[in-house]
């Protein structure tokens, strides 16, 4: 456990994960410095926010000066990953190398690629597709940097996340906002395949647990998740919490691929069909054996998320 005196640099401080991590750190009495390009973040008072690009090594070296831990929580335009991620990886590593602070990278599970088995940390990085293969190369670069003593790095991997502050996600505003308004949820994917979801506060808590354990560096850790559920089951539970009818509209894959000819974002999403056309199960037993932290139950996470969406009074997306 931390003594509360460390300085954490949260890179990508204004996204849902960066904000959640910052909130948990502030609640623990730790010091936080945030970095994002806009220099604007809805962070609590007392948090220092810097404007800067994580892809710029000098910026990262300056921002990381004096930091005890670096959290990589950047998220980039889904249609520009190939161009935007590689320099950000190098920037994060430059900051970690110069400061000597451990880097916790908030990763997803694309690097595991299509599988017929639960996803484990020891699966080889995939060569499948564009974004999955890119994430596998990013992971390999991070772990090689650790291996060579260039920087100290751990990868903390979450599945599709949901929770307060999460709007752009498979289980985000296109599901919660319409259901609260009594309209059908608009879904991509498959309604009836079991799928592992991550509750965002569990993601942040897992990053902090790894940050507190120097011996856990140099490895991949899967965030603990509640048991998998189908999208239809999730929609039913959200609607029950919202007091509305559980209605859902699922965009079929052939239509998504057709629309992808005209809409770049849908084109990028089409290659992720493998996450939805079969059970998408994540094994987090290694994390719980090491850290003992159980995942937040789905009922608790959904109730907190519905409460957050109610507070926002968001218009339901068309
Ligand atoms: N969405 C999911 O379901 C999911 C699941 C598992 C893992 N993840 C991973 O979790 C991470 C965080 O996701 P998120 O949804 O919280 O991210 P996000 O909202 O997409 O982005 C977080 C922040 O990154 C900042 N940013 C973007 N480019 C930057 C740059 N070059 N330099 C500095 N800051 C930059 C942005 O602020 P500015 O625009 O002001 O710079 C933004 O506020 C990502 O790596 C994502 O792959 C996501």
SSE layout:
Elements: E1 7-11, H1 16-27, E2 31-36, E3 48-51, H2 57-64, E4 69-72, H3 81-99, E5 103-107, H4 131-147, E6 153-157, E7 161-162, H5 173-180, E8 185-188, E9 198-199, H6 200-211, E10 220-222, H7 231-242, E11 248-251, H8 253-259, H9 264-270, H10 285-291, H11 298-312
Helix pairs in contact: 1-6, 2-3, 3-4, 5-7, 5-11, 7-11, 8-9
The structure holds NADP nicotinamide-adenine-dinucleotide phosphate (NAP).
Q: Can you offer a commentary on this structure?
A:
The chain is an alpha/beta fold and 318 residues long. The chain has 2 domains: 7-160 and 197-222, Rossmann fold (3-Layer(aba) Sandwich), CATH 3.40.50; 168-195 and 229-279 and 297-310, UDP-galactose 4-epimerase, domain 1. The chain has helices at residues 16-27, 57-64, 81-99, 131-147, 173-180, 200-211, 231-242, 253-259, 264-270, 285-291, 298-312, and strands at residues 7-11, 31-36, 48-51, 69-72, 103-107, 153-157, 161-162, 185-188, 198-199, 220-222, 248-251. Strands 3-2-1-4-5-6-10 form a 7-stranded parallel β-sheet, with helices on both faces. The chain has a two-stranded parallel sheet with strand order 7-9. The chain has a two-stranded parallel ribbon with strand order 8-11. The termini are far apart. NADP nicotinamide-adenine-dinucleotide phosphate (NAP) binds next to helix 1 and strand 2.
